[in-house]
Amino acid sequence: MAEEAGMFTVQQTVGSVLCCKCGIPMAPNAANMCVKCLRSEVDITEGLQKHVIITHCPECECYLQPPRTWIKAQLESKELLTFCVKRLKNMNRVRLVHAEFVWTEPHSKRIKVRLRVQKEVLNGAILEQAYVVEYVQQEHMCESCSRVAANPDQWVAAVQLRQHVSHRRTFFYLEQLILKHDAAAHAIKIKQMDQGIDFFFANRSHGVKFVEFIGKVAPVKSRSDKQLISHDSKSNDYNYKHTFSVEISPICREDLICLPPKVALSMGNFGPLVICSKVTNSIALLDPLTLRQCFLDADQYWRTSFKSLLTSRQLVEYIVLDVELVSSEVNIGGSRYALADAQVARVSDFGKNDLIFSFRTHLGHLLSPGDYALGYDLYGTNTNDMELEKHKGLALPEVILIKKSYEEKRQRKRGKPRSWKLKSLNMEVDETRNRADEEKVDTEYEAFLRDLEENPDIRFNISLYRNRDYQPSEVASVTDGDLPSVPLEELLADLDLTDQEMEDPERA
């Protein structure tokens, strides 16, 4: 206001005073001392802990929070930083401003944390100071790990996960779901069986929680039983071993199903010849001739359980001769489909006969003349299914296509590493398996990896990691352009603290 009126104003300046100790000019404060002299007079970290002993379990990477709580934390994680700060005493005397880790050797059994604190000192002046706290790890196994080390078979709850099918595709997918959600973190032992996996837990509650998790991601039915191990009549204590038997539905994705008449009628005359398009805690069924979709939850399925007419192991490769769209592309349950009239021939018939099949398919948006596709050969298959015989007068199509095939293009890429990888559970594998069984498992796992590349819906629920050994080449990127692959933005960095420490040893 004064400048607008043309009045003379005096510029305000901040005066300086001399330090009462060393005499250098400084901004005035309540103590009339510079920062160096103030720190020489007062140590605000006096009385604070600078050496702390913590208990660490080397088996499960947990830390003891007295009196009996074990906290799981990785090195240099925010959980470990919170744990270390809470172990300090007399921190109510100062105000914590910042905390960070200081790099130490991985095998030194030392954790160093740099803390920055503030405190009000002489005449109300606020002093800030940093200091380092050293934590010494004492190795001591927790109760569950010591129990396992003493007797590995000393389990309390066992979950027997089974699926009565001829392949392990479902268990490959469940393994990735379990790893992503850390559902088997409390398992003391995991053992791979013939048609499933066994999980062993030290507490019954951990087994119950794991069964509930499986019920949320797959259509299952379960039953439980218990066996009395010991009994103390004086203290009235009973020790039981609990067993949970969990059976997964034998219906898998891409299976061809003939619905029982009662089920088809209850779903509004749906099908009866349908494809399983997706399996979660419910089964998604798609009619390839009408593009109708229905869902069966676990209770509905197990009430009238049925099996697949044909499975993915019986797929036949065809070559597409002609495709004529019948309807426009539609989105059903997050997947795209388009009805089309197609003409195909079996790849195995080339040079033998001129047999051509004409039918209607739901893959009109994917197929073009000259493409390869995998489907079920109902023309040459001898089916012996009780449910199919109940549908009298049902006209079966000669071919039902399931998906587009990239086998010919994959032949060029055979043996080359992928840009991504998966993690696996620490399972005990039966060493009595012969070579044929191992080759069968390897083939099924390779088919599972191809499904991940071709279907983004499956990749959505699991974690894929970057393969550090992969070295891309310009020739491969040009020749493999039509092959389905996993985008780089979907990959996670596989965190390895030892590698980070070797790359940047002077980070502290």
Describe the structure.
By secondary structure, the chain is α+β, with helices and mostly antiparallel strands. It has helices at residues 35-41, 78-86, 143-150, 169-181, 204-217, 261-266, 298-303, 386-390, 407-413, 435-454, 456-459, 474-479, 497-503; strands spanning 17-18, 25-26, 51-57, 62-65, 69-72, 95-102, 110-120, 126-139, 157-162, 187-193, 196-201, 220-232, 237-248, 256-258, 273-279, 282-286, 293-297, 316-325, 330-332, 335-337, 340-346, 357-361, 372-377, 399-405, 420-421, 464-466, 491-492. The protein has a six-stranded mixed sheet, sandwiched between helices. A five-stranded mixed sheet has the order 10-11-9-13-12. Strands 22-21-18-23-24 form a five-stranded antiparallel sheet, with no helix packed on it. A hairpin with a 4-residue loop joins β12 and β13 (237-248).
Which features would summarize this protein structure in a list?
508 residues, six-stranded mixed beta sheet, five-stranded mixed beta sheet, 13 helices, 27 strands, disordered C terminus
